[in-house]
Design brief:
By secondary structure, the protein is of the alpha+beta class. The chain is 26% helix and 18% strand. Strands 1-2-3 form a 3-stranded antiparallel sheet, with no helix packed on it.
């Protein structure tokens, strides 16, 4: 049985030339389109009667330049990982407010709960008729 061998990459005749690829990348990097998706860019260019390539081709070009991600300079939020450590009961407590449905439509009752983080037991709870900051304290 003989295996057919082909070159690793065969250039397709319809593929974009290097100059066309550079032009598409310039469009993608322009201030006008830097925060738009390729589909939106193609739509705007078509309204201007200009067609460079399909949105799928743009999506193929972006990973080649490690750009298939947010291309704007966006401030990233700081990494915050809260950690509550309890090695015995009664060291760290947490609280929560849950609204329970009442007997009529639209009626809700706040249920305030204090939980021991170590044992996961409910320390205290309060079912009220209205939600208020004083009751939460």
């Amino acid at each position: 049985m003989m295996l057919e061998t082909r070159p690793a990459r065969v250039r397709v005749l319809l593929a974009l030339s290097l100059s066309e690829r550079a032009e598409v990348l310039d469009i993608l990097h322009s201030e006008r389109f830097v925060d738009r998706a390729p589909e939106a860019i193609v739509a705007v260019l078509l309204e201007e009667k200009k067609y460079l390539c399909s949105a799928r081709t743009m999506y193929r070009l972006l990973p080649e330049h490690d750009e298939l991600r947010e291309r704007r300079h966006v401030r990233r939020p700081p990494q915050y990982h809260p950690e509550f450590m309890a090695t015995a009961p009664r060291q760290t407590w947490s609280w929560d407010v849950t609204f329970l449905r009442g007997p009529t439509k639209g009626a809700e009752y706040p249920l305030y709960v204090i939980i021991d983080i170590y044992s996961r037991r409910i320390i205290s709870w309060l079912l009220a008729q209205v939600d208020s900051a004083e009751l939460a304290k």
